Amino acid sequence: MSVSHWLFAMIVASLLFAGVDAARAHPHVLVSVRTTAVINDRGEIEALKHAWKFDEAFSTFSTTGLDKNGDGKLDREELADLAKVNVESLHEYAFFSFIRKGKEQSEFGVVKDYWLSHDGKNLTLHFTLPVSKNPLRIQDVRLEVYDPTFFVAFDFEKEAPVTVEGGKLACTAVISAPKAGVTERLSKLGESFFQSLNAGANADWAVPVRFTCK
Predict the structure, then answer these.
(1) Which of the residues 70, 124, 144, 145 has the least number of beta carbons within 10 Å of its own beta carbon?
(2) Averaged pLDDT score across all residues of the chain
(3) How do residues 127-186 score in pLDDT, each as one tens digit?
(4) 67 with 75: CB under 8 angstroms?
(5) Cα–Cα dist 11/60, whole Å
């Protein structure tokens, strides 16, 4: 089974675990996002440090049988193989991360420093996503973390959702409020609509993050 098919199978299975109609429901997985934008002295974003917390149903199913030492906890070593599969799977989807300025877009390189943690209920995937091509100045960009097909729903954490580190600038993230009525509209759309969407496409369920700097 390929990595992408493995991920799809896990997601569908997690839906069955949660009692959701996999054929019709969108989204299939819920992810809470906390992100740090790392900038250099020129004010360009050179990396994103992500922490993605997965919903409890998906976390429960995907960790079944991973407590090898039977201590009732999941440590980083027990989750290492799952973390590797997550990162390899997400590469196919550009990590659902976009740094844009008009028609320009940064490209990402090989993921660094990735691991999974588990707090007893939720899995959190931690990883650093370095910019490999076309770094953009933080004051000019729109940062978005979303799935263009809405298979996975990303939402920023309420506390300290996006921070900035490094460089000489003092920057603050400004997160736009979700558009009114988007969730209700999406709930009425059929599977064929989502299957017709292209990776990298703009979507009105993406929540843009912009930055003000001094």
Answers:
(1) 70
(2) 83
(3) 999 999 999 999 999 999 998 877 788 999 999 999 999 999 999 999 987 666 666 666
(4) no
(5) 11
Which residue type occupies 153? A
User: Which carries the bigger pLDDT value, residue 100 or residue 180?
Assistant: 100
| Among the listed residues 54, 133, 102, 88, the one whose alpha carbon sits nearest the alpha carbon of residue 202 | 102
Q: Where are the domains of the chain?
A: 3-213
Q: How far apart are CA 141 and CA 65, in angstroms?
A: 42
Residue 54 contacts residue 126 (beta carbons within 8 Å):
no
Q: How much is the pTM?
A: 0.82
The pair of three-digit structure tokens given for residue 88, joined into one six-digit string: 């390899």
Maximal CA-CA distance, the chain: 51
